[in-house]
Amino acid sequence: MTKSVPFMSRPEFLAGSPLVNGQPIAGPGATLPILNPATGETIATLPLLGAREAELAIASNGAALGAWRTRAAAERAGILQSWHALVAQNREDLALPLTAEQGKPLAEARGEIDYAASFIQWFAEEARRVYGEIIPAAADRRSMVLKQPVGIVGAITPWNFPAAMITRKVAPALAAGCTATLKPSELTPLTAFALALEAGVPPGVFNVIAGDAPAIGSVLTGHPDVAKFTFTGSTAVGKYLTAQCASTLKRVSMELGGNAPLIVFDDADIDQAVAGVIASKFRNTGQTCVCANRILVQDGIHDRFAEALAARVAEFRVGNGLEGDTDQGPLITPAAYQKVRDHVDDAVRHGARIITGDQHHDAGELFHQPTVLVGATEAMQLAGEETFGPVAPLFHFKSEAEALALANRTRSGLAAYALTSDMDRFWRVAEALEFGMVGVNTGIVSNETAPFGGIKESGLGREGSRHGIAEFLELKTISLGLSGQVQA
Ligand code: SIN
Predict the structure, then answer these.
(1) What is the DSSP string of 383-406?
(2) Of ligand 1's atoms, which has the minimum distance to the CA of residue 284?
(3) Can you say how many angstroms the Cα of residue 120 is from the centroid of all Cα atoms in its chain?
């Protein structure tokens, strides 16, 4: 175990290995370092796997598919329930490597393990509720609809939620009777390997490989035996991968970037509005797809709200997530840090005024001070692109119509938020916002029971909820001819 990670009773979670057909798999020899973004220290090395290992993984998925899909749903549900129990039992030992490789404060990592576990439990329950249909098509004919697993699933998951994005895809796939090969981010593979070790599924049902991302990605999106491809990440990469899936016409699910507006109306409760912005904007140091990216504040409340928000943000404890009670961790990479700097510098050049933050934080190379700025406008980079960092830009607006127009003026359509105490406005705004998810008087929209996903260029399909398993099921129509007239 590296010196920067506290004692773990499951040290193997920190030294995990890619897993194919239930066995650790070695690559041709090259490795990648896994860095702790808080310290820059190497915490593990990742064998650099590529197309060959991806092909082996898919072959093993194929060999395991027949037996897995024909098991009773209750049996698959039982295996997922055991996985859920192990994840819950090993919460601390999973949270520690998650913080070490991703940087989020340990309290957030524990919350993410709970969130990840909730998807396993939810889909264990849903496995038993894959109901078909019988349709009285005509007096002498019945149509039946069977729901069957799509087959082999390829999945690629991001670094910002190294546990939850995996279980939100893999648990419904396995529950439906599919087999899966996952490529987690090369920045955060240790949590993925640890989760796979605990899954307890038969060999070949769930493989995890990482290394040469483009090579593995090409196999997962191009292999004719992969029936379904599911991805969480940037819109640009999602479009590219969707195009690669087109040659074999795979089913795809895409959870892509957002540019979430958060609207604070004059009638909002200030404390609730500040809490909503903190929960949405500063979760994971601003590194989520559903983070509020543009905070639109009505003129009558603007100054009081800005002052209250800045005072709260100035109190954040910034530092290494493994040490003490930190609220904000590092950015994931130097490029991510630089993007935050560029957005702040560009905003200031265009007339924004910083009311707290703005500087590098001396906790380490990738730490940025949590920042609030006022006077943001659509001319600034941060209005059109996700900052993915701890910067809260406040835009002014006068009327509800102006706020809605500003909020909807984006090609993204993942999440939006509104803070208001007026129930009529609540309905009007929730219905008018062109986003897949709307949070009203809350900064959190996601949990295992609710459909997660976006419209416009934020994606295709939904994860979580009772709809999440449908992404891994095909409908098959069976038409039954009856001899003679039967009462319809
Ligand atoms: C994401 O940022 O991609 C996921 C956030 C969530 O599940 O709440």
Answers:
(1) HHS---SSEEEEEEESSHHHHHHH
(2) 2
(3) 15
CA of 412 to the centre of ligand 1 (A): 15
What distance in angstroms lies between residue 289's CA and the mean position of ligand 1's atoms?
6
CATH number of 260-440: 3.40.309.10
Q: How many CB atoms lie within 10 A of CB 224?
A: 9
Domain span(s) for CATH 3.40.309.10 in the chain:
260-440
CATH 3.40.605.10 residue window(s) in the chain = 11-256
- Taking the domain 11-256, which CATH number applies? 3.40.605.10
Q: Are 82 and 130 in contact (CB under 8 A)?
A: no
The residue whose CA has the least distance to atom 3 of ligand 1 is 289
Tell me the catalytic residues.
Answer: 255, 289
SS3 of the chain: helix, strand, coil, percent, to 5: 40, 25, 35
Write out pLDDT tens, residues 346-374: 999 999 999 999 899 999 999 999 999 99
DSSP-derived secondary structure letter, 214: H
Contact 395, 376 (CB under 8 A): yes
pLDDT digits (tens, 9 = 90+) for 255-287: 999 999 999 999 999 999 999 999 999 999 999
